[in-house]
Amino acid sequence: MRKAASQVSMKDIAEKLNLSPVTVSVVLNGRGDSVRISRKTQARIFEAAQEMGYQSTSYAKHGASETGRLPIAVFWRIDHMNGYFCDFLTQLYRALADRSLENRIMLFTYQPGRLNEQMPPLSAADYKGAMIEGTTENDQRYVENLHSAIPVVLIGRESQKVHCVSTNNYLAGELCAEMIGRRHTRAGMVLPQNGGKAFQLMDIGFRTACETNRIQIKPEWIYTAASDGFSEGETAILQLMGHKEDRPTVLLVMCVHMVEGMLHKCREMGISVPEDLEIIAIGDTERFAYLQPSVSAMQIPVGDYAVAALEMILLFIDKNIDLPVKKEQNPRFVFRASFPET
Predict the structure, then answer these.
(1) pTM value?
(2) Which band of pLDDT confidence, cut at 50, 70 and 90, is reported for residue 310?
């Protein structure tokens, strides 16, 4: 007679696969890679556990609701350690405090494309969940094949295999184009050289909507930034606007740290913002409100990302739901002086 799911043990799985209970325990607790158990064997164990209806009890024993503790591992791309990161972390701490959960966040940084080398084992004994931001395609494939014993949430990315929270970046690009189209027919762009999938989708959405709205984007009105900083912003304005009669009247800027340099160079060149050139930034920082002029921005709702990711982890713990959950947050526009609402 088939056992009920709650009665299936690691020993049962081990006997079915002709493996030792220790091997099965190591894999189901997320430490298979750290002790060099082959991916093929790990896959067999996870498949058998799913087929037999095995249910881990690690969360029941150490649930957040009982202890008030929720150790979370946060993995953040080293080149994304900016205001975006600060907003995320601030909102995550607030969300934990609102739920009377102990603030136990373990922060790890990683180089893009090297997550597989730099991520420690995601053991259920150490963490109750993990949040991973900024994955490249290779990083994401690695995460999706982990078969982690704890819930993993991708931040700012989409996935069919693990939990994820993101923005509809294509839509964000479309919305920017629609706003620009209200009073402009010539648009320029400032793009990051190594922009991820989110920027690529936003770029496509923006250009497609510009074409629909008959907004012209010439190749010479597009600047690809090698870095994101003040001096690069000055260089961008010089290249896009300097000594040209035929130039854009509005810029969509996807590199937030270039904006201050762009405004500085505009003042030097006698280009008035917003009278001669309007600017919209993708991504908002508190500093934008205090620049002269203040800068309008399409906000990436990173604070909402933090709350949604926490809710996914709590749902997994409280309800033992391990089906991938996907949540999209809507972008928000903040009108300031560089692109007035009217």
Answers:
(1) 0.68
(2) very high
